[in-house]
Design brief:
alpha+beta; NADH Oxidase; globular
Length: about 190
């Protein structure tokens, strides 16, 4: 294995896994994940993130109903965390830069890294119906439901389809820095 180039091991080890166990996650562990999320930086320290932790049968059923079919694997996860924000909770800057979504992303990344540190899987999903989440939980219309994060212990991959099984065992695929970084001047995307 090549020498690590990252500072934090969890950055290198974090991976969007899908092979979950139905084994419950201790509440204290979920609290540590959420605390880690709230320690993220935010514009003017406004902390505009809001999280809904679904851990009991009733709340999990409501969250699972909103998942797209491609996220069938998340039905095994014993915890689903709904990541939300609201535009007026955060900084509104020039050029229509509403920072609430950026800040929420920082918080979610902290949550993912803490989960990795604890030996848990945490997989954020965009494949869900945010209107169904709002309806099922009575969330106000002006709240942005940005992601649902499956959290759980590693489990068997027996239930995964061929595509997801291949991704579960594949290495990380990242673009080289030269494709995403420009130095000292902008030449376009």
């Amino acid at each position: 294995m090549a020498m690590s180039t990252t500072i934090v091991t969890e950055i290198e080890q974090r991976f969007a896994r899908r092979a979950y166990s139905e084994k419950p996650v201790e509440r204290k562990a979920v609290e540590r994940l959420l605390t880690s999320a709230t320690l993220a930086p935010s514009c003017s320290n406004k902390q505009s993130w809001r999280f809904l932790a679904c851990t009991n049968d009733e709340s999990l059923k409501k969250a699972r109903e909103a998942l797209n079919g491609g996220n069938y694997w998340a039905l095994k996860a014993p915890v689903l965390i709904v990541a939300t924000t609201k535009d007026d909770l955060d900084c509104k800057l020039s050029d229509d830069r509403n920072y609430s979504q950026f800040d929420l992303g920082l918080g979610v990344m902290n949550l993912l890294l803490q989960a990795t540190h604890e030996g848990l899987y945490a997989h954020p999903m965009a494949g869900f119906d945010p209107l169904k989440v709002k309806e099922n939980f009575g969330i106000d219309d002006d709240v942005r439901v940005m992601a649902v994060i499956a959290v759980g212990h590693p489990g068997s991959s027996d239930h995964l389809n061929e595509k997801h099984l291949a991704s579960e065992t594949a290495g990380r695929d990242r673009k080289p820095l030269g494709d995403v970084v420009q130095w000292d001047g902008w030449s376009g995307i």
